[in-house]
Amino acid sequence: MKTRDKIVHAALELFNEHGERNITTNHIAAHIDISPGNLYYHFRNKQEIVREIFALYSAELLERFTPIQGQQESLVLLKHYLDSIFTLMWKYRFFYANLPEILQRDTDLHADYIKVQDKLQTNLINIMRAFVELKLLKVEEHELKSLVTTLHLIASSWLGYQSAMSPRTHITEQIVHQGMLQMIAVVKPKATEQGREQLQLLEDGVKAMHA
C-alpha cells in the first residue's frame, strides 16, 4: 500500500476510534511509523486528509445507492441497501457522528457534501420508485421525496443524536443497527403486505445479531 493510502486508512481508523477532533497529524504519523515530515509531503494538514476520506466515502455512497438494473429478488435488493446503510455508517462513523462540526469549518467540503447528497437523493427516489413498481411499497409519486428525506435524515443524524442523548456514548455496531431498525419502522407503514413480510424478515435478522 502506498504511503498516501496508509495515511488515509490510519486516519480513518483513529478518527473512528477516538474522534476526529482528538487526533492530530502527529498521531496519524506515529500510528503508521512515519515522520510528520513524510506525512506533510502527502497532505498539508489534517483537513486535507478529512477531504480525502470524504472523497472515498462519497464514491462508495453513490456506488452503493445507484439503482440496480435488471431482474432481482426483491428481498435481495432490500438486504443489499440495508447492508449498505450499515457498512457506510460503521466504516465512516466519525463523519456521521460529527457531521455539522466537520462541515462548518470547511466551506469547500460543505459544498461538495451538498452536491453529493443531491445526487444521492435522486438515486434514492429512483430506488423507492422501483420498490413501488415491485409492489413492496404503496407510496404516491408526490410522497417519494418526503419519505426519502425522512430516511436520509435518520441515517445522517442518528449517530449524532445518540451521542447527544448520552454523555458517554461510544459508537458500537448495535447503535448503528438501532438506526437501521428506526429506518425500517418508518418504511413499514408505507409497505404492502408483501413488503411488510420482507421488511419483517430484515428486521428480525438485525435484531438476531444482538440477541
Automatic annotation (TrEMBL):
The keyword DNA-binding applies. Keywords: DNA-binding. Gene3D superfamilies: Tetracycline Repressor, domain 2. InterPro entries: Homeodomain-like_sf, HTH-type_Tx_Regulator, HTH_TetR, TetR. It comes from the Bacteria. Residues 24-43 bind DNA. Residues 1-61 form the HTH tetR-type domain. PROSITE patterns: HTH_TETR_2 (PS50977). GO terms for molecular function: DNA binding. This is TetR/AcrR family transcriptional regulator.
